[in-house]
């Protein structure tokens, strides 16, 4: 058995419509996912017992100290679930190399889980389970099925019921990372709290046809105008300093800006690769981010390399 390495992308939510809280503790979503070219790599190595190691990718200043190395690691949970279904021992060393911010709202943990599922399925020659990976992934986290699929897609339900969205051309992004992560459950809870405090009725479900049209046409201006995230007020309430970062991006000419998922990473859409380079340099110079990185999308989901 030879080690298997899988490369897996981060995501940004182009529209994150958050519906009412359900009885199972999740929210119904209208979630437009877009996979971008920030990649983690997970290598599955045959071993005598399960273990996980994590390192930052050479050029990425990813703070890895908060990634759990025990049973709470999403990649290891995914490997154990797959082993159980495949009827094998979960004897694998998972080597995770991270470029996706940790707890940053870019689904890094879900990406690693998706990569572990694919890498272990190949390692254990569990080909019959390949079509079941999205379903297994959904048991680990709502964003895992999308990390397997990649490109652009709309996710309904808790985000796991996916339909691919047609996309033309390439969109150029700048991401600003922030110190420390935000807990996804805490951001959803803050969203509920703010809505209740303000007596907001959520119009549900939101339309997403303008966004879908902009994606299909490859129209960055229209896409920038259509970006929307219902979790943004909650992320800003928990992390008020993000307001400055969003304002700076807008003033520096981004076509659109928003908090990525539950944050605290912020995303800025540029007109072209050159515009993204200029915007990234200006944002870095403004001193409103921990780190500024460029990426493009859409890109494929988890892939064996
Ligand atoms: O599915 P995942 O483990 O990624 O979700 C993390 C947390 O985010 C959930 O426990 C829940 O608090 C919140 N969440 C939600 N509604 C969703 C997805 C996630 O409330 N559709």
Automatic annotation (TrEMBL):
Gene: ispE
UniProt EC number: 2.7.1.148
Catalysis: reaction(s): 4-CDP-2-C-methyl-D-erythritol + ATP = 4-CDP-2-C-methyl-D-erythritol 2-phosphate + ADP + H(+)
Organism for this UniProt entry: Actinomadura gamaensis
Active site: residue positions: 11, 143
Transmembrane intervals: none
Protein name: 4-diphosphocytidyl-2-C-methyl-D-erythritol kinase
Presence of the UniProt keyword Transferase in the record: yes
Matches recorded under HAMAP family: IspE
Lineage: Bacteria, Bacillati, Actinomycetota, Actinomycetes, Streptosporangiales
Protein's UniProt keywords contain Kinase: yes
Domain GHMP kinase N-terminal: 73-150
């Amino acid at each position: 058995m030879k080690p298997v390495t899988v490369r897996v992308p981060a995501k940004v939510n182009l529209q994150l419509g958050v519906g009412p809280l359900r009885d199972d503790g999740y929210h119904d979503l209208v979630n437009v996912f877009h996979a971008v070219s920030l990649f983690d790599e997970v290598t599955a190595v045959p071993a005598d017992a399960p273990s996980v190691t994590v390192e930052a990718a050479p050029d990425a200043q990813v703070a890895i100290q908060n990634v759990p190395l025990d049973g709470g690691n999403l990649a290891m949970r995914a490997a154990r679930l797959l082993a159980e279904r495949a009827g094998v021992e979960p004897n694998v060393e998972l080597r995770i190399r991270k470029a996706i911010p940790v707890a940053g709202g870019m689904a890094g943990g879900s990406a690693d889980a998706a990569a572990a599922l694919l890498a272990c399925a190949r390692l254990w020659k569990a080909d019959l389970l390949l079509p079941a990976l999205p379903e297994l992934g959904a048991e680990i986290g709502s964003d895992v099925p999308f990390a397997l699929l990649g490109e652009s897609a709309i996710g309904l339900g808790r985000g796991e019921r996916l339909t691919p969205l047609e996309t033309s051309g390439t969109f150029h992004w700048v991401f600003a990372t922030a110190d420390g992560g935000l807990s996804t459950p805490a951001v959803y809870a803050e969203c509920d709290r703010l809505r209740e405090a303000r007596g907001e009725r959520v119009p549900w479900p939101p339309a997403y046809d303008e966004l879908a049209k902009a994606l299909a046409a490859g129209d960055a201006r229209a896409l920038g105008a259509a970006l929307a995230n219902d979790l943004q007020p909650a992320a800003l309430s928990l992390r008020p300093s993000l307001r400055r970062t969003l304002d700076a991006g807008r003033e520096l000419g981004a076509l659109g800006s928003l908090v990525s998922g539950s944050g605290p990473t912020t995303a800025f859409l540029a007109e072209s690769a050159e515009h993204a380079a200029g915007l990234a340099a200006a944002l870095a110079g403004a001193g409103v981010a921990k780190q500024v990185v460029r990426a493009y999308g859409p890109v494929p989901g988890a892939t064996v390399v």
